[in-house]
Amino acid sequence: MTTKITIEFDVVPTDSNLPLALTVVLDGESVWQNNAVTETCKVSFTVDDAEGKHVLRWHVSGKLPSYTKIDADGNIVSDSLLKIENFIIDDIDISNLIYVVATYTHDCNGTAEMKTYKMYEELGCNGVAELKFTTPLYLWLLESM
To answer: Count of domains in the chain?
Structure first.
């Protein structure tokens, strides 16, 4: 019998008036989608803890250039972003760990070349953030810390 582990996190928009779309994909299958995130959403799904490789992706879309307000000095004064908070796998909060091992590929909404960055708490560009992990989960946690 295969054990299931639960993956859960919150998706928090910074500006409900300028919503972004988010699709969460696990191993090529969509597990959650919202075309206009206007309030905090709790996302939860399960994965088998049997030995295997997994890829979790966050596909961000819908960001328009007008969603980022910049002052005369080039400083961002407001922006529409999605934050990934309270990232928990199997009752273990690994929020800080995913910001070390996850990546975020985007082109700064068309203002730069496509590039892969470290994923931090905020997703503010149309692109794909990716977390690769293996199961059994506890072995991956030990290897990643």
So the answer is: 1
User: What pTM was estimated for this model as a whole?
Assistant: 0.92
CA pair distance 126, 106, nearest whole angstrom: 6
Q: Which of 34, 137, 15, 11 is nearest to 85 (CA)?
A: 11
Distance separating alpha carbons of residues 17 and 38, to the nearest angstrom: 7
CATH of the domain at 135: 2.60.60.40
Cα–Cα nearest to 9, from 76, 127, 98:
98
Query: pLDDT digits over 27-47, tens only?
Result: 999 999 999 999 999 999 999
Q: How far apart are CA 106 and CA 99, in angstroms?
A: 16
Region of 15 on the Ramachandran plot (φ > 0 left; ψ -120 to 50 alpha; else beta): beta
The phi, psi pair for 85, rounded to 5°, reads -125, 160
Q: Give per-residue pLDDT as tens, 80-125.
A: 999 999 999 989 999 888 888 999 999 988 888 999 999 988 999 9
